Amino acid sequence: MSKTNQTSCTAVLVGKDASFDGSTMIARNEDAHGAINPKRFTAVKAEDHPSKYVSKVNEFTIDLPDNPLRHTFTPSADESEGVWGESGINTSNVAMSATETEFTNPHVLGLDPLVKEGIGEEAMESVVLPYIHSAREGVERLGKIIEKYGTFESNGIAFSDADEVWYFETVGGHHWAAQRIPDDAYAIAPNQTGIQNIDFSKPDEFMWATDLREFAEKNHLNPSKTEFNFRNIFGTHTEADRHYNTPRAWYGQKYLNPEMEQDPMSDEIPFIQRADHKISIEDIQYILSSHYQGTPYDLFGNGTEEEKHRFRPIGIDRNQEFHILQIRNDVPAEYAAIHWLTFGVNLYSAQVPFYANVNDTPENYKNTTNTVDLNSAYWLNKTIAALAEPHYHQVINEVNTFKDDAQSYACGRVAAIDSLAAELSGSDLIDFLTRQNETTAAEVTKRTYALFDSLVKHANNHMQLTFDKGQNL
User: Gene3D superfamilies per the record (predicted)?
Assistant: First the structure.
């Protein structure tokens, strides 16, 4: 999320042959400038879409196509400053996560400046996801919008369907490129241009702005004699990147490929990687909750104070919501899409597997206010983080046990719901999945309240404002 520079998000993208069950997965932490940015989780019906989108961030306006699709959505609780839809899956089982804040180098911005009234992250999910029927179509639609209207920021956007995962990156005001993540590969994206060498002879693997090559050639932007490295031509390689961005890619790759030796501050950490094992939901959850565990850079570890504050962690106070958009290939399409979601700081929160083919979402997920309300899933999880972090070493085992138990429950629920859903179709199936999501969320919420109860008691029993009269006798 890009309300200010260098504040936002980490993404993980997994091809279907690299995943544990043959599903495609795109995942991202939605981070904000500060610790608080209340979020909601909704299901947007086709009839509720406007015919024209008018941004509240700038004067960007666009006419929208007919026949929009119903989809899940995670907008801001207060839309007075924009929608910021961020993540969702539509009824064609196309997923979109938007966006990963990125940065274009100053030379390119001088030649293709950002467009003040262009499209931005705030609008992308709203004007693309309801109107696409494949991941590739998502790339094409967003690319045309960027070229016609321009954009006022640099971003990375993930698209997926049952077969393909694509990562789309904007550079400058009107240029972009996208790469299909190979089926047997994964990618980790911090707030930095990721795509590397583009092979223009392979349009099935890469897509790009109409004049991308010509723009680079005309303006002598390419430092290489032999290749077209998108990251090197358009991206940044700053000291801030080496402390803020590349270490996150390094740690995620270190977790999935522990055999690799890489420098966390390297400018050359590969975008595309392959693990020697299948990547699970739990692997992604670990990465996007991580804080450099097992290294000197862990804030809660044994490194020096300088080491513990050297790099920006992935799991951080500004986490607002964390989604894994999973499109499965081993069940019928009508219930193949799962929108895994948690609110709050990932390190302390459990994920809920919400089936995407639904017409509503639970009350405590869709109704979030701007003021603290423990009836809200967002505020409950944010409060738990505030209670747990000051007592990290005393409570983290309890928190991890809570998360593991909730994950076991979630996996069991998916198996049970799949079995029952196989007997249903049409509106009966949609209603059934909607009710089952309610039940799943209610149980995870119940467990979360139990953790809250324990953490409040722990915090009260460890207050410094206390006195033992025996100490002075």
Answer: Penicillin V Acylase, Chain A
